[in-house]
Amino acid sequence: MSGPAPSWKSLAATSAVMLVSGTASSLMIRTQERLGFKHIFTSSLLMFIGEYLNILNILVPLKLSRRKELEHFSDLQKKAKVGGKSLEVGIFRLGFGGVLDLLSTSFHLVSALLFPPSVLQMLRSGTMVSVFFFTRFYLKKEVSFQKWAALAVISSGLLLVSLSSFVSQVEAGEPSDFSRQFLGLICLLISFLLNGFYFIYQEALMDRFEVDASRLVAAESVMGVISLTICLLFTSRIKCTHPELCRSTFDDPSEAMVYLLSDPTRLTLALLTILSLMVFNTSGLLVTKSASSIFRILIDSGKTVIFWAAAVALGLEVFSWRRFSLQAPGFALLLLGNLINAEVVPLERFRLFLRKALLQNAKSSR
């Protein structure tokens, strides 16, 4: 009876670390945006640097002890043999997730400049919708009635929360701009699709290969840094035509570095963001490996309330009753959908009970 306890304790601890580090990184990224740091690709580059530091979790302990190095690879071989997995996986296959993460992060950062913080955090649950579809049509796994019901409820919640971003912001002291909100919504939808496929790709990779979580994150970040470096060669030459998204050019890394180094507060926030993202990505990958990508989304969406309360308390968002009147029921539906998905609310049993009752009623009426 005491056997499974450590694994559940480990999963709970990892989920808590993911929740705290994810909330902290979101708050710091939003604070940097409020301070005028409008460099989408440079922000993504800093995030990938944070991810790459995960390689230290492997290299430092292994290089300090030959015994630990041998035990590490021996343990991987045993796990691969027991799970019927392969140890031979190419660097490009490992790193492809980094390209998906890069694209998803970039579109998400654009939407972060256009959406109110609370709306953006609540809409993060939309990733679960794309995870459902990719689970069914890419991984070819069956999705139960319980999961489809959760999908319907979550979609309803997403609709309400999305509508809250289009209501008049006069009460909150913010100008109403339909085109701005619509562009943010489109970027967010693209981010959902890419992020959902990114999680599913990671799950499929770890189902087939025995991969250390830190090694996978580091490989993804290397691919992301290479891709971003190439992108920045072009973005630094493109003139900015949308001042709400960028500064003189679409993204000039030299301008971004000068901006960060000129203020200790900005530099500190950037370094803390890198550190929190390093912890967040590794803990998130461990949650996916221990449970599933859907469970990871469930935990990730749990930081919404904490972030919203902190954003209002820190002045990153002005509280609006008009917005809240749509956000509250929308978030309630998102929470209910997550509970249904986690099978805390057992709809499958209710469906079977209802079907049995209807059949008995039909027989008795004959």
Summarize the structure.
The chain has 366 residues and is mainly alpha-helical.
As a percent range, the share of helical residues equals: over 70%
Q: What is the residue-averaged pLDDT?
A: 77
Question: Pairing-aware structural class of the strands and helices?
Answer: mainly alpha
Spans of at least 5 consecutive residues with low confidence: 1-6
Roughly what fraction of the amino acids lie in strands? under 5%
**Secondary-structure element sequence?**
HHHHHHHHHHHHHHHH
Shape: globular
Q: Give a quick account of the main beta sheet: strands, pairing sense, barrel closure.
A: none
Measured distance between first and last alpha carbons: 50 Å
How many H/I helices?
16
Q: In total, how many beta strands?
A: 0
Rg, please?
22 Å
Commentary on this structure:
- Helices cover 77% and strands 0% of the residues.
- With 366 residues, it is an all-alpha fold.
- The longest helix is centred in the middle third of the chain and has 31 residues, at 178-208.
Write out key terms for the chains shown.
366 residues, single chain, mainly alpha, 0% strand
List the helices and strands and how they pair.
Blueprint: H1 5-34, H2 40-52, H3 56-64, H4 66-83, H5 91-114, H6 117-123, H7 126-137, H8 145-164, H9 178-208, H10 213-235, H11 253-261, H12 264-290, H13 293-301, H14 303-313, H15 321-341, H16 347-364
Helix pairs in contact: 1-12, 1-14, 2-5, 2-10, 2-12, 3-4, 5-9, 5-10, 6-14, 7-8, 7-9, 7-13, 8-15, 12-13
